[in-house]
Amino acid sequence: CQPVPKPESRVEVCDLNPCPPRWKVTPAGPCSSSCGLGLAVQLVTCVQILHGQEVLQEEHLCPVAEKPLTSVPCVIRTCSYEWSFSEWSECSTSCGNGIQTRQDFCLSSLTHKPVNPLFCRRFPKAIVVRGCSAGPCPEQQGSQPPGAELQPATPATRLTAAAAATERRHKNLDIPLSAGPREQTEPGGGEEIFLLGVFLTCLYCPGVCGNLFLNATGIINMTGVESRDCTVAIGRPLREEISVTVLESSLNCSAGEVLLFSGRMMWRTGCRKLPLSLINSRTNTLIVKQRVVLPGNGVILQYNSRTATKKYYQDCDQQLFGPQGKIVNPVQLPEERQEVVCRTFITVAPRQRISIRALNTDLGPEGNQTHFNYILVRDVSTMKTVVFRGKQQFLWQSTGSQAEIEFHE
Questions:
Q1: Does 177 reside within a domain?
Q2: Claim to verify: residue 225 and residue 299 sit in the same structural domain
């Protein structure tokens, strides 16, 4: 181009339309669990680039359906300790029904040697006693009805008067309280008493969104709902797990519509290839959340319950579904002390919140407290925990519809 005159260089100012607001995610915070599966909280904000600077905007200016999750699953490392068990003993009787037992011990996954049971105290432990049958006794031949089978024995429980009255009051609503809080039978024994309440009086509200389903099986139609975020919960007694099949789906994946399943031991999201897909809760509760942008879209779910394939609870655990109840936790005598953490799981309808009030607590003298003697309350939606010690009375309120109480020592 040398023979051709070169034009003068110049710079022209241009002003394109500003970039639309977008979601910004900061790195996730610390994992809620030091080992095994936990949750990490990340900060999600709506920002926009203006004149080369990042400016914070109101959240409604960003596409709601594309908002990233504020809590994400995390695993720092596998847990270093786990429960191990000996072989089952012989049946305690030579005929008829008896029991079998086995020994449990805490095992280090690094050395594969037993360690102090305190290292495994936070992990669920499988059963160590079960029923067995050595066949009918001679004098009982022919007395057993055809098809009768031995059922594993479970500890007998009795409702306190207040809990029994509450259960009768809500029996017609099909809202089971639990297998029943254990009644204090030792005279003069200490106890912790808690009252469970729900902020809202609506049990089964109009429409499907925000409700808790407690039947063994059912169909949930989440199509055509007015709310962009529609959440439902499914609850069953301990010892059961829930399986959900997506019968139909009209979600628009390209528009950011998505379906989210969450439970105590699972987390799953999806949009494409949803029809006829099967989701297993692995525990007795499951939360289903649908995020929809276009009116009329949604999914139709069918759920069923069955006996759990793996034990995810302890024999002293209990499940409450509300709307209100009483928890009485007897203090164990020294000779009955067990290296186990008893838990109470509380699940209410997604549009409701939980209030727990301690009426009477006695965890020992203030000067005689140990590191392992306390009550822990966990808000499942945020995975935040609060610890109470001594004779402290308290009022605790949840941010979500699920809570857990752990009674340590």
A1: no
A2: yes
Phi and psi at residue 129, in whole multiples of 5°? -135, 135
The CATH number that applies at residue 105 is: 2.20.100
Phi and psi at residue 206, to the nearest 5°: -60, 140
Tokens representing 349 are 């309808």
User: Tokens 């935040």 — which residue?
Assistant: 384
Please, which residues bridge with residue 234 across strands? 213, 286
Does residue 16 form part of some domain?
no
Q: How many domains does the chain have?
A: 4
Q: Is 165 helix (H, G, I), strand (E, B) or coil?
A: helix
Inter-residue contact 106 to 117 (CB < 8 Å): yes
- For the entire predicted model, the pTM comes to 0.52
pLDDT of residue 267: 84
pLDDT band at 364 (very low <50, low <70, confident <90, very high): low
pLDDT for res 189: 40
Nearest to 307 by CA among 272, 287, 280: 280
**Secondary-structure percent of the chain, ordered helix, strand, coil, rounded to 5:** 10, 35, 55
391 is a domain residue: yes
Residues 354, 197: contact at Cβ < 8 Å? yes
Q: Could you read off the pLDDT of 306-345 as tens digits, one per residue?
A: 999 888 888 888 899 877 777 877 555 555 555 567 889 9
Q: Do 218 and 302 belong to one domain?
A: yes
Distance between CA atoms of residues 253 and 246, nearest Å: 15
Classify residue 238 by its DSSP letter: T
Tell me the per-residue pLDDT of 134-175, one tens digit each, with 9 for 90 and over: 777 775 444 443 333 323 333 323 333 333 333 333 333 333
CB atoms within 10 A of CB 104: 17
Model confidence pLDDT, tens digit, residues 103-122 = 888 888 777 788 877 777 66
What element of type H or E holds 162? helix 161-169
Q: Are residues 269 and 255 in the same domain?
A: yes
Residue-number span of the structural domain to which 260 is assigned? 212-307
